[in-house]
Amino acid sequence: ASSSPVASSYSAAASCDVADRAESRGHGGDGDLDLEAELARCKKELSLCAELARHGEEEARCAREEADRRKEEAELCRQEAARCKREASRYKSEARRCRQEAAKSREEARKRAEESRITEEESEVRGKELKALSTSIGIAADKLLCPITKDLPLHPVIAEDGYVYECAAIKEYFEKTKGERLRSPATNVMMGRRVLAAARVFGVVETLVGSG
């Protein structure tokens, strides 16, 4: 591995220092030994400096990697926050849509209940009307029944008592009671022997017979 600029500078300074020492001491056997010892010491120091430089570079590299890792984590956190914000917005929109649909459903239910109530009231009114009509028709039918035959007359006539009779039946009744004081077969009240052909009543009877 190449040495750092710090180690190189230190090495250059140490070399210069060694050279200065060698020049000041001159030439001689003892001087050579001192120079070699000094060189060895300088090499040892240079090696130590290089080792320290390597450690420094390793720590710097680890620091850069840690900074990059934290930067990536910060970016992931930012993306997660943005996703959560989008999700919250989606949930909010969904909740608003659900509230609107619930309000719409309540309004539709209210309208159906109102329509049902109106229909029920109309049905009740119609039922009462039909009941009244049925009662009226029953009363009218009873009025049209011949008091003698208890049936709808095919040839209706109206007697003096105001009731509708089958023509043959009332005439037969007149024959049976000939010479007697005539009483109404319907009310037992005194009445005359005249009858009136009831063309209109005949039309009503035909209608009732035709309708069953």
Attribute tags:
mainly alpha, 4 helices, Herpes Virus-1, three-stranded antiparallel β-sheet, 212 residues, rod-shaped
**Percentage of residues in helical conformation:** over 70%
Helix run count: 4
Shape: rod-shaped
Strand/helix succession: HHEEHEH
Count of individual beta strands = 3
Q: What separation lies between the terminal Cα atoms?
A: 122 Å
Strand content: under 5%
Largest sheet: 3 strands, antiparallel
Task: State mean pLDDT (0 to 100 scale).
Answer: 79
Detailed description of the structure:
The protein has 212 residues and is mainly alpha-helical. Among the domains are: 5-76; 145-211, Herpes Virus-1. It contains four helices and three strands. It has a three-stranded antiparallel sheet with strand order 2-1-3. Helix 1 packs antiparallel against helix 2 (29-144). The longest helix is centred in the middle third of the chain and has 116 residues, at 29-144. It is rod-shaped. Residues 1-15 have a biased composition (Low complexity).
